[in-house]
Amino acid sequence: MLLVSRCLMGAKCRYNGEGKPNRAVIEFLRELQEGRDYVFICPETAGRLPIPRLPGEIIGGDAAKVWAGAAKVQNPAGADYTPGFIAGADIACQTAAKTGARAALLKEKSPSCGVHLVHDGHFDGTTVPGQGVAAYALARQGVRLFSEDDLDELQAYLRQTEEEHHE
Q1: What is the rounded end-to-end Cα distance, in angstroms, of the chain?
Q2: Three-state SS at 40
Q3: Number of alpha helices (DSSP H) and beta strands (DSSP E) in the chain
């Protein structure tokens, strides 16, 4: 089972009330069956963060520090979104456990779902290496992470796990 960020299909669940449809992801999922091969997640809506809202970025550290209580997810005005991000990440982890998901296809640069990159906390578009709050929690749970830029690697991983499953 694969978890997939709902916004990559165009669902209007992002902070700004928009989706982020990715043509390659949409094409990739056409070969798979929802409910059998993948399920959609959106940690931010699961965490009951309002839509639309000001953007949030990790301030004062990285996702590990957010989980440790030493960093926060805040908007540019300083409002603390951390509880919603943690709650949504917990729900994503519960979904992974319930469905047996071993991989996740997540939205890069998101403070929830960033796999390789997140924004640097200055709200100027600059990114830094790191994971989002939910991505970090899923990885700690043993879920293999892929972004929309990693579709070839994801496809190879799914083929490999399918072959191992049939051995």
Answers
A1: 18
A2: strand
A3: 6, 8
Model confidence over 101-149: pLDDT tens digits?
Answer: 999 999 999 999 999 999 999 999 999 999 999 999 999 999 999 999 9
Q: What are phi and psi of 103, to 5 degrees?
A: -145, 155
Is the previous residue joined to 76 through a cis bond, with omega within 30 degrees of 0? Answer: no
Write the CA distances from 78 to 56, 110, 142, integer angstroms. 9, 18, 32
Report how far residue 63's alpha carbon sits from residue 65's, in angstroms, rounded to the nearest whole number: 5
User: Is 90 exceeded by the pLDDT of residue 95?
Assistant: yes
- Residue whose pair of structure tokens reads 């209580």 in the numeric block: 69
Please name which of 105, 142, 151, 111 lies closest in space to residue 128, comparing C-alpha atoms. 111
pLDDT per residue as tens digits for the range 16-48: 999 999 999 999 999 899 999 999 999 999 999
* Angle of helix 133-140 versus helix 82-99 axis, rounded to 10: 40
